[in-house]
Amino acid sequence: MHIRRFLMVALVVGVASIAAAQTFNPRDDIKPKDEESTVSNDRLPDPLSGIESPAEWPARREQIRQLFATEMFGNVPTDKLNAIKVKVKVKDQGTRKSIFGGKATMWQPVVTLAGRDLQLLIFLPSESKDTPAFLAYNFHGNHTVLDDVDIPVTEHWVRNKPGNRASAQDRGNGASRWAVEKIIDHGFALVTLYYGDVDPDFDDGFANGVHAALADKPAGDQWGSIATWAWGLSRVLDYLETVPEIDEQRVAVMGHSRLGKTALWAGANDERFALVISNNSGCGGAALSRRRSGETVARINTAFPHWFCKNFAHYNDNEAQLPFDQHMLIALMAPRPVYVASAVEDTWADPEGEFLSAKHATPVYQLLGSEGLPAKEMPAVDQPSQGSIGYHVRSGGHGVTDFDWTEYLKFSSKHLLNK
Ligand code: GTR
C-alpha cells in the first residue's frame, strides 16, 4: 500500500476505534462508584471488534476464547491427555433409592477420570427419560448436599477441616444451598459431585488430583485448577451422554463463587452446555477486572496461585493490559442463555461489576438475534431482569439461597422447557 494511503487508513481506523470504544463504554461504567479508581482513561475491549455480521462471530469467538485460555485460565494439555488416553469410565453403577415420598430417585454411580474416582450424586424425577438437568460441583462433599446416611462421606482432601478430612457430622450442612426438592418439582434432574474429586483445592505444585497422571508441571499458558475443574465438568457431561434418563442437550452448568468462575469457563469451552449459571462468581468470573472493586487480579493470584495459569500474574495491578475483560467471558456463552447473580452484601465479588459484564455482553447476543439482558441500569435489589441473559442482585451475602434457585428454575424452565 502507498505510504500516504496507509497513513490515511490508519488514521481513519484509529479515530473510528476510539469513537467505538467511547460509545461502547464510558469510563464511568468501569470506575467503581465507591472508591477512587487507580485505572485512568481505561476502556473495556469491544467483544465485537472487527466484526459486523453473525457469520463472523464464530471466528471472533474462538479468538476471544483462546485469549482467555492463554492469558488467564490456561489451556488443557490435550495432547498429553490423549497420549495417556484419558477418558471418563464407569467404575460402579451405584445404588438407587426412592426419596421425597417416591417423586425422585437418588442415584450414586462412580466414574473414573485419569485415575481419580468421581463420586456422582444424581437426583432424578421418578420415571425420568431425557430429563433436563443441572450439573454443579459442591464445595464440601456430596454428604453435605443432603442429610442422608446413604450418601458416602468423601475421602478426598477437603478445605477447612481438621486433617483436611471430611466427617459424617457434616451431613446435610450445605443443604440450604441445594433446593433439591424444588428442582425435582420443576421437572429437572440435579447432578452434583465434589470438586476436590477432580483436583484438591490447594497449591500442591500440580502433584495431586487428575494432574498426578501427567508427569510434568504445566507451562505458563497451561491449565490452573479452575480450568481443570471446568474440564472435569465436560468429562462428566461425556458420561451423562450415556445416561438415558438425562437429556445431554439440556444440561445447565451451574456454580457458586470459585465454582461459578469454573461454570463460566466450562460453558465457554464446551458449547454442549445448553445454559450457564454464575452465582456470586466475582473476580475471575463475572466481575469486570478493570473496576478493581472488591477482589482484584493481584489479590486473587496471590491468595490462590493455583487457580489460573501463570500468565495471568502479568496482569497483577496491570488490568489495563488485559486483552479482554469479563463481559467477553459472558459473551462466549452467546447465543445460549446465561444467568449472572450477585448478592448485595457480597461487595468482595463486586455486584455492579457483575451486572456490567452481563450488560456489556448484550451487544453480542443482539448481533446473534436475541435480547441479551433487558435491564439497562443496575436492577433494584431482589428485582431480577431476565432475557437471554439473566441478572439479579438479591438481598443478603455471599451464598446460594432459595431465592437464587427460584430464579434459576424460572429462567431454565423458560429456556429449556419452553414454559
Ligand atoms: C474467596 C475468593 C473468591 C471466591 C470465594 C469462594 O476467598 O477470594 O474469589 O472464589 O473465595 O470461592 O468461596
UniProtKB/TrEMBL annotation:
Annotated InterPro entries: AB_hydrolase_fold (IPR029058), GCE-like_dom (IPR054579)
Superkingdom field: Bacteria
Gene3D superfamilies found in the cross-reference section: alpha/beta hydrolase
Compositional bias annotation for Basic and acidic residues: 27-36
GO MF terms held by the record: carboxylic ester hydrolase activity
Keyword Phosphoprotein: no
Keywords: Hydrolase, Serine esterase, Signal
Region (Disordered): 27-53
Ribonucleoprotein among keywords: no
Signal peptide: 1-21
Domain 4-O-methyl-glucuronoyl methylesterase-like: 221-369
Protein's name in the database: 4-O-methyl-glucuronoyl methylesterase-like domain-containing protein
Organism (species): Novipirellula galeiformis
